[in-house]
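In this supplementary section we document a worked example of the pipeline. Step one takes a protein sequence of length 205 as its only input; no multiple sequence alignment statistics are reported here. Step two produces a three-dimensional model, which step three serialises into C-alpha cells for compact storage. The input and output of this example are shown verbatim.
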Amino acid sequence: MYIIGIAGGTGSGKTTVTRKIIESLPPDEVTLIPQDSYYIDASDRPLEERRKINFDHPFSFDWDLLIRHVKELKAGKAIDQPTYSYLECIRLKETLHIEPRKVILIEGILALFNKELRDLMDLKVFVDADSDERLIRVIERDIIERGRTVQMVVDRYRAVLKPMHLEFIEPTKQYADLIIPQGGENEKAVEIMQTYILHHKSLAQ
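The serialised model returned by step three reads:
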C-alpha cells in the first residue's frame, strides 16, 4: 500500500491534482480520503452557531477518527467513512464503505498538519498557488456549491481564510516531499508526480 497526503490552501488546486492522480490509476487500485469528511460533528449546536465554525482551524477536525481510519486501511481493514454537509454544518448519518486499496490519497487543507498522520504517509505533497488565484477559485466554488454571496466569501477570506492559511496551512509546506506550484494547472509537475507514484506503487505491492 502507498499512502499519499495532498495539502494546500483553499482553492489551491488540490482537488484537480487529486483527480489527475486518480485518473492515472486503475479505479480499483485507488481510494480517496477527503479530510473534509472528518470535521467534528456539531449537530448539538444551533444552526447559527454552527455557521460560525472556523473550518480552517486544526481544532475543527476529528483527528483521532481520521488517523484511526488510515491505520485500519493500512492494516487491510475496511472503514465506514463519515460524510459532512457544508450547508447544514453537521456530520450526516450516511457513511461511505471504503475498502483498502493499493493507493490511498488523503486530501485536505491540513493533511500535513498532524505529525501522527504525516508519519503514515509515503509521499507528502503541497499544492501551491497565488493568493489572488485561490481567492477567485473560492468565490466561484462557494457561490455555486455553498450558497454564499461574493461579499460573504470576501469577508470570510479576510477574517478567516487568509489568517488561518498563514498561521496553519502555509507552514506545513516544510513537511512536503513535493511542492506543486500553480496548482493543478502545472501539467509537467503533475506528470512527474504521476510517474513517481506509478513507479513506487509497483514497488509497494
